[in-house]
Structure to design on (95 residues):
């Protein structure tokens, strides 16, 4: 298995919950979390179909200023951005 596949297996189940949780906890002050959640759902669906997800990761990078952790982030938001960043890097490396 590839590094990206390994990370998918490890992170995707948590990210399903985390990306939704951060919309509830931070959506008011960080409306980009709604789009991050939507984009993660697209990544998950397209990954199952073995489709390219480069554009989704690119959009998340833009939305999050390259996964910059906001100063008011909770631990879940921090984990979410770190997981997505690791996935993005592994995906980009394998492409």
């Amino acid at each position: 298995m590839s590094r990206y596949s390994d990370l998918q297996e490890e992170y995707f189940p948590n990210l399903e919950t985390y990306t939704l949780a951060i919309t509830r906890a931070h959506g008011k002050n960080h409306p980009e979390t709604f789009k991050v959640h939507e984009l993660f759902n697209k990544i998950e669906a397209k990954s199952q179909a073995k489709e390219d997800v480069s554009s989704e990761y690119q959009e998340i990078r833009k939305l999050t200023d390259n996964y910059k952790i906001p100063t008011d982030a909770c631990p879940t938001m921090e984990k979410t951005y770190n997981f997505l960043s690791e996935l993005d890097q592994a995906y980009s490396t394998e492409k």
Q: What stands out?
A: The helical segments are 3-26, 32-48, 54-63, 75-94. Residues 3-26 form the longest helix (24 residues). Residues 54 and 95 are 9 Å apart (CA to CA).
